[in-house]
Records
---
Amino acid sequence: MSERFKYREDREAYSAARVRALEALLIKKGIITDRTVDTVLEFFETKMGPFNGAKIVARAWVDPAFRERLIADTPKAIAELDLPDGMAGAEGEHMRAVANAPGVHNLIICTLCSCYPWPVLGLPPYWYKDPTFRSRAAREPRAVLAEFGLPIAEDIEVKVWDSSAQIRWFVVPERPAGTEGLSESELETLVTPEAMMGVAVAKAA
Amino acid sequence: MKLQHYLGGLEGLGPVSTETRVFVEPWETRIFGIHTAMMALSVQLPLPATPSAFNTIWTWADLRKGAESLNPFDYFKYRYYEKWLGGISGYFIERGYITAEELDALTDEYYQDPSKPLPVAGDAAIDDRVVQYLVEGDSPKRDVTVTVDFSVGDVVRIENVPSIEHTRLPGFLRNKTGTVETVYPGAYTYLCDTGPDGIGPTMAVYCIRFEPAELWPGNAEQNFSLYADLYARYVAAIDNATATKAA
């Protein structure tokens, strides 16, 4: 049993060699090309990523009617914006946004795996995939949020959304105070993936 | 029973990770790319045929089945992409695309010389399809008429279906009652048929609100609600709790 709790000493070097061997074999066997993995990674650097989510939230902050449409019919509202093709693509086919408000704080989780809205946020950070987070957030979200440095007052309702079917969720955080003079593009820089999943709030720079 | 189906609410685990990086080692990006390519090249998708030798199905459900079948200690022990690397390597070996021996031998070569280049080969149509998949997605929604038994505000009971290999019913919701918050328009398939667990066929999906005080009696935080999206198969009438719902 003790072996179960040990890692090989060359843990990362071994995995690096093994994944490279796997990629090489898949290219050699004609399953993928020598460009496939880089093509995927480039797509997430330029087309699907948190830069889209930041634009959506910034628009919701400056345009209350857009914010209402975003909550009522998330994909339709997102389609209004000038974003890359694929906003209803992989892992964003059916997205739903919930908005924080005075008295309400939302937190998105996936207790069964790591469902995440790729088109607007890209790939999930490690905290979201952590089995400990996924276990604890379902029963003690306030304790978990406090560990992220986000204490939630008792009079604020916490709504936790477990992504167990095919709908992918994100949070529209509240616009921080003191940002009245900022442009929409300046506001975008205040939006983080953590704020759009609910383990942080947006803060003025 | 698989612990991975019952993670929600598990206690005694210590502090959460607050790591905000997506990848913590450069090699992790490569297995993510391979997985995404497999999903895009999976044979059931209505996308243009390519010269790729990949001729089987690979979806999220296959990746999830692998993770859910792990020893639960290993599930906690290994990082996210370590589990992917194990599951995906195993799939290619089991399906006969590669052999364990050639993977081990080539791993040794790259271990000795990490700068050894990758082969240069492949038809661009394969990569075009991968991008097309990412842009178009693979919607499980079907515009067909299905039975919708419940309306917003209805109190419902969650079934305790016999899940074996794979499920989308979080264990902590089984046998609990909740209130319908949303009836999603249309109907949804799942990535595979989960057998007696019962999803796969086209059916309604509900968002259901649960009271933490009922989920965790005497052990819940205050002023909080838990919502979960659940396939209709998992949702039953409150006054018919013991009846077996037709699959």
Note: The helical segments of chain B are 26-41, 60-68, 72-77, 80-94, 100-112, 124-136, 212-215.
---
Amino acid sequence: MKILIIEDETAIASSIKAYFKPNGVQCETATTTSEALSKIGLYDYDCILLDLMLPDGDGFDILKELKRTNKTEGVIIISAKENLETRLEGFNLGADDYLTKPFHLAELLVRIQALVRRKNFQGSNTVSFNEITVDVLAKTVSVKGARLDITKKEIDLLLFLIGNQNKVLSKAAIAEHLSGDMADMLDNHDFIYAHIKNLKKKLAQAGSGDYIQTVYGLGYKWQNE
Amino acid sequence: MNKKLLHKTTRNFLVLAAVILLISAPIFYFVSHFLYIYEADEVLVFHKEDFVAKASEQGFSTADIALWNQYNRSVEIIPDTGLKKDSLFSKDYFDATSQEYEPFRELWAPIVIDGQKYTYTEKNNLVVMEGMVIAVAVMFLMVIAFLMTGIIWFSKRSASRLWAPFYDTLKQIQDFELDKSHHPQFADTDIEEFTRLNKSLERLIEKNVAIFKSQREFVENAAHELQTPLALFQTKLDSLSQLQMTREQSELLASLEQDVSRLNRLNKNLLLLSKIDNETYFELEPIVVNEYLGKNLEFFTEQAASKGIRVAFDNTRPVTVKANPILFDVLVNNLFINAIRHNIENGAIHITLDDGALSFANTGIGTALDAERMFNRFAKINPSGKGNGLGLAIVRKIVEVNHWTIGYHFSGDRHIFTVRF
């Protein structure tokens, strides 16, 4: 998978790049609109991450250009601007998702994966890991072909973990993924422990391997045994 | 007690007029009385001189004295009294006709007739004069009184017209609120002082509004600007988490995660507050309160359950209010999280909703809280608490922009927050 990061804060771009690489996502970066447009013209990307405030113009110009040239790349806006108008304008101009800074890299990664899955959708939208298969559309999970009795939240958690395999996921990142903005308000993120525990139990009962590791103090990690 | 400006000027004017009248009336009387006596004296002296001149010219002799005295009522020649010079004095005589004493002015003067010394006496009745003095005084007072009332009436009328721009300005200033977008528009006036007053006020307001605005924008801009370094911080923490670490390092990193979460929340709340201040959320929609309560009920019930708190919500018939959906969401969430955060282990939260009010009642510390302070920004009742002291400030702000009220009371063992729509 190849993505383009259009972001003038090079430190953010390089963090994203370094984080995504082990998970099979190649990143190219552009720091200005002109650089971005020339790269978009030359290569095809699976997904574009777009910061709205760029030194030589507005991120919306890139969206307009993509629309004009009938490019089908999925676009996720990553912006510090948090208001409805910007969000709506982004979506109207063809953006697929909107993530407000600051965000967790893990969140960004699963959003990209989800977007790419949707874009490449050919009759089925599934995520697999060894014996586990998640049907994203039907909201079902099966282990070795047998369906699991699992809640929506647990599927969400499972997708988040698999998508970020081999990554240490902080409790805050998981909480935010499960509860969105509501997670901000919480004094601690211990509630995710219950969800992890349930998911672990259900997977184990279905005969799946134990892929969820607890990382002391920090959070959890999905890893092949 | 405060009096109105117009009443005060008129009242002062009236007091002055009364004082002047009271003082001037006796002065006027005495002055006119003195002047009359002066005149009367002059007449007496003139008569005497006339008599002396005529007497010597026409050969008035001592023999004529008796006859003169017989036919003359006011002038009498009497034998010499040893007077050396003219003497003028006032004296009352009983008048047989009017049966009362009447005031007279009298002149006694030494004269010489046929070489013999006599005393010339003449008296002048002052009664007529007295009446006249009084009549003139009364007329004078009446004229003054008329003049006074006229002046007062006129000045009152013109003053109220004169001060009209001042009262207009006063009213506008009274209605002025710095955080509202409506600013005073002063009417033009042709009075220099009022124009100056209005100009100064306009300048003052303009300056304050500008400062207020830039301060508000500053908070919003600062919060916005903070988001980029926060994003950097967050992404770097995420990257750091991936490294092999000792237990100690993990612990430090975990606490850093918590700190950045807190920073993030604080920044978001500040941004939200300044956005409400800057009237970003003005679109109103009809909102079914029950739906908004139900929407995140599961999430909050889960959060509450981790502290053993039971949440009870009597979902009665739908209640609809008009509000901004984003803000209403924040309002409900903040009240909910507040009820959980300040609760006790195995406590309870009871949510009630009826037509005019939504209330959250929660168990907590056993005493009432300072209702005045708790809605202020950064007013943390429990300083060691995890909240950032903005939750209830945001609640109050949202309640204010919707023209609702928020109340707090402590009843039984429950802290009850009630929003009245």
Note: Chain A touches chain B at residues 9, 11-12, 15-16, 18-19, 80-84, 100-106, 167-168, 170-173, 179, 182, 184-188, 190-191, 194, 215-219 (CB under 8 Å).
---
Amino acid sequence: MSPARRAPAPGGRRRRPVALIALGMLVAGGLFAALVRDQFTLQILTFVFIFAIYAQSWNLAAHSGQYSLGHATFLGLGAYASVLLAGRLGIPVALAMFIGPLLPALVALGIARLCLRLREWYLGMVTFGFTAIVQVLVVEQFGWLTNRWDGVEARSLWPGALSVETVGVLSYLAALALMVGSYLFAAAMMGSKTGLALAAIHDNELVARVSGVNVRGYRLLAMTVSGYLAGLAGALNSHTLTRHISPGIFGIEDSIWPLLYTIAGGLRTPEGPILGTLIVRVFWEWTLRELGGFESLILIGAALALIVMFFPQGLYVLVTRVAEWTRTRVRAG
Amino acid sequence: MVLDSSSLLQILIWGLVVGSIYMLLATGLTLIFGVMKIVNFAQGELMMWGAFLTFLLARWLEVNPYAALAGSALLVGLAGVAIERFGFSRIRGTAKINEIFLSIALILVLQNTLARVFVPYFREYAQIRTPYATEFFDLGVINLRYDFVILIGLAWALMLGLGYFLYRTAVGRDLRATSQNRSAAMLMGIDVRRVDMLCFCIGAALAAVAGSLYGVINPFSPYAGTIAAIKAFAVIILGGLGSVTGAVVGGLLYGVVESVATFFLGGSWRDAIAFVLLIVVLMLRPEGIFKEGG
Amino acid sequence: MANTRWFDLAMALAMVVAAPAALAQAGTVRLGLLTSMTGPAAGTGLDQQRAATLAVEEINAAGGVSVGGKKLKLELVTGDDQTSREGAVSGVTRLLVEDKVDVVFGGLGSAFGMAALPLIRDRGVPYIPTPSTPLFTRTMELGPDPTKSMVFHYQGTGLMYGAATADFIAQALRRGERAKVVWLYQDSPFGAEYVRGYSDRIKERNLPLDTVATERFKVGETDYRAQLTKIKALAPDVLVPMGFRGETVAMIQQAVLDVGLDRKKTAIGPVCACADDPLYYKDLGRVGEYTTILSLYSTYAAPKNRLFARWEPFRELFVKRYGILPGVMGVSAYDSVHIAAKAIELAGSLDKAKIVDALGRLEMDQQVLPVNGGKLRFDPKFREVDFYLIAQQLLWDDKVKELRPVVVWPHEVAEAKYRQP
């Protein structure tokens, strides 16, 4: 593959009004909840927000050229750590949710350290392998703590006295807030000097090193941050929606989806993971309702194949194109 | 720990049998990688389609599954060409991760189409029945089913045939040349597009054979291919991307390690141990055991 | 604001989802079947859906359920758990929120049922799960008091099967003789409970069984040769291969054909009652001759006892409608519909708390699945049903060219004695 054919790092083509977008998301999300009171729709969107955080975490690692195929490791460890902290030690859930992900952050650091010499496919497979290994460890070595395959029930983030509807709305808002927070963080990180360094490493590690970029440090940093964020998504999910965790979380599927969401939306843009998760997930739910399970998955597969063939840089390109088109129209008019 | 000579022999045989299946799958992957520098994870789904077609053909035409296997390999081989033409050839040159994306999209399509057809009739599993299921070779300490001997024999015959094709024919030479240096091959007048299609065809056909053999010795489900393909990919990483020798050695080694680990550590380590091996090897040799190319 | 354009797009897309759900038909009782309609277990999910449909049609043909003097029709709604935890959460929410079901029932995978449980519990909807794990009603780590729980477990549990396994081996298979037993079992909550039920029963009754090895395999794995090779070297008297249908078939075939286990020395079975399915007899083939299987519902046997009186009629009904025989998971879904209907009549209302209460004090004639004493009720402590298990030995039937079962245990319903090959 010749680097020349690749588009410039999509992270820094034009300064994006990050604050405006974040505000837009908050307002739109809030309005949506106020207008559409349907619990099921809100729950789907809560899923979308949580998985968007997860996809964002994958995106950050990818931004430094570390394409992980085993992010479920971090998602699962974050969930387990937080659930166990809250359940066994009685730490308030809202606190445990932020302490728990330190474990996957640490594990991510360790894995990144081991993988410093590895790139591309090699790195992908090693990260995938760690998911399989961590699953066995969680079941076998830490079975006394994790109930082996039985799994652990998670405490709810919200007090038990609240009604189911209120809890649904609160979870939705919490997920929305954290997603916007992770977006701001990712945008700031990609837009900063660190982001430039990461992009340089992504494009050509050797060149980056020669030009004085601390490749080692930045790679470790990107993976650690990514591990934390993935763990946060896992913790948030298990205290709001899927309130029972079992070792099945360390499966292939959970490692694959953030990759699909991010690339469908726009790889290495802070908006891509959010856009991709929203579109794919909503499309999925819609086809599931209209057609049924197998047909829905077949259709998603076909749609994703078309996306990558016609928009290899993700659907976010559409947005920027529309934006530019409007701008020129406005100028001309 | 009980480990007498007959147990040891059996463990090694099980390892070689599974290893032969990984070997076929991995060889297909590594050929494609060598030439196009892409990885098609959907190889595992082609494998299960291969098993299913062999199963159906043997049933409908009432022929020996080992004969039906040829038909299945042909059909899946053609599907491989279609996948290359309408899928992978279109995304060459875009971001590297896009290949994974496309292969996952293909997995979704292939796996669920198969499940859609398979599940209402066969529920979770089906198995390919051969006329030799209860025929044995007496090896003294153990009896070995004909099917295992046929499986290993067929896998090796295919590998030798492939070796002959790659090293003794003009088309095989073109293929190796493209694998070593694509642009040079193009300048030499080799039609690399045809080479691409050929690779995908061989890779898919090998996957179909691997799947059919898997279906002879194990019950198969539409979902069994994914993890097999990932392991096969780990095999070619272990052996060195693009290296056929690596795929052969890596495949067999993987099979044996899995079998031995299950025996000593228990079944829960079966999948994980392969990756422990992969990680250890990559820590020592970041480019795999055998180097890239040919 | 051009850059926030995609919010319009997102909103439009989300609106698609927000499209008004099919409004619940007034005057119907909605039963939500939460099971796997996609993914590896989808075939068995279909079995449940078919069987439940049959039960709903039966009840409606008889006029429906009477609630407060009015006859209401039943309506079956299926929620797909997609054989995944996230799928279960999404599927059950759809049932609870959109379809507003009055009862949730069914299911195959314990992990998916458990993932759905907190959401069902939050809304206080009665739940009759049919996966095997006893965890549904036995661990409520953070939940309410089990006796006030809304979960009523209608399925043979691993604990029950494990205990029956120990009893059967000691009483019928070895007739009191001391035996070396090995297990090859599924590494899952179900498998772990199963082995625990077995070990507990041995301790409890001081049975002369020595468990010399417990080997495990991962769910979905179908190559057991390495474990079986190890087991063969131990030369046990009994091998208990425990797993789902496909897994069990593969274990027995590999043990006999590939690894060469000495059939004269080692008895194989009893295998899990969950494997009893037409396809089990078909797939296993002659290799399975003389093996044994536990059953909560047998595909072919028809022991002469009132406990099994409904087996034959149910089979006929099912075959007439779908052209194939049902499996035990389908039967439990069928029964669950009848139980739910009965409880609603007893409650005389669609009020959730009243239905839960009715389920708690329900006492009705057993349905298709046999219950000790013939009366079906949920025991007040664990909210489980005291099922009556049988063991069968499989023998080759030359007429149909397939294995057919002979009931060999317990002795009061046995058709023949267990035979060593």
Note: The first strand of chain A starts at residue 152 and ends at 153.
---
Amino acid sequence: MSAGFADRLYLPGGGPVHTLPPVCKLVAVLAFTVVVVATPREHLAAFGGYLVLLLAVAAVARVPPGFLARRLLIEVPFLAFALALPFFAHGERVDVLGLSLSAEGLWGAWNIVAKGTLGVLASLLLAATTRPHLILGALRSLGMPGILVQIAGLMLRYFEVIAAELDRMRIARESRGFQARHLGHARVVAQSAGALFIRAYERGERVHLAMLSRGYTGAMPPLGTDGERGGAVPWLIALSLPAAALAVAVAGWLPVR
Amino acid sequence: MHAPDGFIVGPIALAAGAVAVGGVAVAVPRARRQLDERAAPMAGLVAAFVFAAQMLNFPVAGGTSGHLLGGALAAILVGPYAGLLAVAIVLLVQALVFADGGLTALGVNVTTMALVTVVVAYPLFRLLVRTLPVSRASVTAAAFVSALVSVPASALAFVLLFAVGGAVDIPLGTFTAAMGGVHVLIGIGEGLITAAAVAAVVAVRPDLVYGARGLDLRAAAPLRGGEAAGAA
């Protein structure tokens, strides 16, 4: 709940990946992820190739591997799920270290871990090199309805404020000697959520009036990057990632000599 | 519960994406009609609230902790359409800006965590509020039940997607039972938090609880000091 939460994934920098137009990066990451997800799980080498590609992008973007590794923790709940699969899935059993495991389950677990991890890494690289509001601008360029972009933008802008309110409530609770220790204490924490909603709602009303008094008529004034389409060169650079991934995938299809 | 990439096969993930887009497309004009030109700031701030409320952790048992999904809470407080938009936007931003949940699984996540929770919780909440006697206790009870049910419903929707397009063939009965059982427990936590949060709002600003509109709750019970929780 610390300040700067919304920017925590963004690593300020002026590298070649940072300066690419956000819309190019967004499309590239999406296309890359689609290629990864569409790759048959038996093509083990292809997944290694994808990882090498992402690490190469990280190196060019000067995103340290340690940063990526720490943020991969977000995947842990699904790793637990994947680990359970070999024990439950149908199909023929194989013996691994004395355990009877389902071969199908092992493949399934590998499929989830490999594709999930590559997807998170690709998203992390996008988030680490692109400011959040520019990602939203890229969505606008791609044709997402303005109202949704506005909602997302206002959410990002006020999230810090709302989270800081929550933190002040926590400090107020703790300075009165309260600490949540068991489920019965959830009621007190939940009442904070109720109070937080009232504060957020009333802030929304004030924000709306402030916007009106500054001439808001239902559309936000365009940002510098809104509607940016990107030139041919940035597109070529950005799309080299999914293109390389596609090449790796196709190489996996070719018969082994 | 944020599904990562590769969990559900491509065609089913695409279909879930189409369902999610359809749900959002239905919600946008209706949220606009409800909130008129306040739609963007109000839904934006409610989305920020849902995101922040998801960070409220409470200890469950054995060192594990639970947190709110928020679909039922948002729908009860601001209505099903604005609530759906707020939760869907939270999931979109989490996937794009926080790398939480796969980009190709966004449709799956919006369908199970925003669409299903709202579509299950809100009608159930309205039904309970209409059938129970008009009182703040009824609103609290209705919030508890609808939020509780919304969590296993969301899990079962996920099981359904997994059964049709899961990357693995697993015994469906066992999987359904396990997911359902775990999520009933999670749902109890969700229900408690949602009920207490709605009760706190009803005690102070009953006019803000969209799902309880048309009920005269002021006369139903006097405001007690400790219940406002606005003191912090």
Note: The longest strand of chain A covers residues 93-96.
